[in-house]
Amino acid sequence: xxxxxxxxxxxxxxxxxxxxxxxxxxxxxxxxxxxxxxxxxxxxxxxxxxxxxxxxxxxxxxxxxxxxxxxxxxxxxxxxxxxxxxxxxxxxxxxxxxxxxxxxxxxxxxxxxxxxxxxxxxxxxxxxxxxxxxxxxxxxxxxxxxxxxxxxxxxxxxxxxxxxxxxxxxxxxxxxxxxxxxxxxxxxxxxxxxxxxxxxxxxxxxxxxxxxxxxxxxxxxxxxxxxxxxxxxxxxxxxxxxxxxxxxxxxxxxxxxxxxxxxxxxxxxxxxxxxxxxxxxxxxxxxxxxxxxxxxxxxxxxxxxxxxxxxxxxxxxxxxxxxxxxxxxxxxxxxxxxxxxxxxxxxxxxxxxxxxxxxxxxxxxxxxxxxxxxxxxxxxxxxxxxxxxxxxxxxxxxxxxxxxxxxxxxxxxxxxxxxxxxxx
Length: 424
Prior knowledge:
alpha/beta; 6-stranded mixed beta sheet; transmembrane helix
């Protein structure tokens, strides 16, 4: 089996962060047992059982709602959620370890049920960690199992990864049994805890940042297109180069300039009725007659007011919407996103702000038409260079789940736009 360029470094760092997490979890487990009443003659097994049940209920409910809310975002934003999973896990470890302190006489706040609430929140964090880690790890495993050259085996990778985690957990527990008994004071316990958590997060961040994912999500596609356009269409960055620029905790729906500043954002898969509230520029249909998408600005961007210096300023930050037509493909998604990036850059460098709505609309339409022509001419060369640089353009992950709506037909009639909306 061929090994990906980033696999060895990731696996080493992943092993180190798992080892740190094993030691920190022992400290939290001891604190939870103290909270359950171990060593307290007045504590009962029934009380401990009921507390465990309450925690389990919170964890299961969180799993249900968490999977519904962001389950479809785990694969496109695998790096973000892989790191976020460990942040949530460490938050749970800290809450568990601090839980006995919440009922201590020295604690300044005496709130009934505070410790139980902390343990329930901890259970919810662990449930969210399980969702985020499960989905993102699956995407990362698939990345390692499908190298550019050679073949991989997802089953083999999963088996080896599980074996490695089992060995590390065992070593962590064995070492922890030697260390934890010596951490007998709160200062030693909390000092060791925060040191382990800090190491855990730093190592995990370095491991995730080093991943050279070859699938194009919104952020990676935007970076590649920006460099391609800046070079005059002569080159695109490799996955390794993009991984050094990509932000692990960046907003996925924003476009950034060469300096890294945010120019605007774009929503993919918006519905027609959500974008066009009171009026619709019919000429937009003519512009996109040959395309399987529409691109337009949020209605709030089409209003402007006079600033202190007399210049016209947009009433809202730049926000674009991509409306998908029936029969769209991955190429159409990527083309629409690249067009949106060009339109955002053009609207930032040459703003069409005017206090008269008709003038604003005319300027926006002209800019949309021009950027469509420019991006369409450059797009085919962009895709060709992406293939040569090692990117996987067949599996484009630009959307988190299915789009909100697909335009089956949009026809102007009697001054009213009739939309046939097909919701997936």
